[in-house]
Amino acid sequence: MIRARRLLLALAVVAGLAGCASSASTPGDGDSAQAIVTIQNKGSDTLVNLALAWAEAYMDTHPEVRISVTGGGSGTGIAAMINGTVDLANASREMKKEEIAAAQANGNDPIEHVVARDAIAIVVNPSNPVDHLTLSQLSAIYTGKITNWRQVGGHSWPIVLLSRESNSGTYVYFLENVVRLGDSHSKLLFSPDTLLMPSSEGITVEIRQNRNAIGYDGLGYVTHDVKVIAVSSDSTSPSVMPSIESVNDGSYPISRPLFIYSAGEPVSHVRAYLDWILTEGQSQVTRLGFVPLD
Question: Are 48 and 106 in contact (CB under 8 A)?
Fold first, then answer.
């Protein structure tokens, strides 16, 4: 973690020096020195640790490349890509129709690249005896129809709802696929009592200290000091724990692809970096607890 923070700080400095778009510069130690190119990468907080690991590993073997990685949420990264201020936008959700239209109106034609897969894990305090829930129960919990753990087989404890903030792609995915159960016509919303947390780490900290709480998080951010709940599609389906295997075989019902978006087909050093992510870089996906591409 300390190494990642140092890397982020170093990359932020590079970003400040290099400007907002990808660029090339030549060190001042002679014409024979290799040109330095910079890739600007911004977006999803779910992807930020993985993006940092990719950047660090790639720069180790490509000293001519500097990669600036920052988070801020999927919406923030997509907005920056639309405005042409980054080369690559990380997203834990698909771009919305209005975002695509805005990009095209700005002269950018977004290209979607699937770079990994993820399971969204449902987490509770270890003292909570509930060990499985259906998607319908999760929807009822997060819309405020179920407010006490005894209604789903637990103790008589009030349920405290935790969620990511609305600029998070994980929030959007959970709203559309769990709260609204995949119904594109549904208008269901999170209960107004839901506590919006600014980060995955914030959810973990609150779950750890609050026996009443329930939250959701990307599989790569789940720690050993929280309890993961098995999930079933309905009351007649088996309850399944999130894992690389259950995502790949399709049995875990809350899984998703993770994306990088580019403004048009990437070229040159950006294309080379994306190609590396989709091949050698997949080892970092496994190492950080996400699901690599087949």
Answer: no
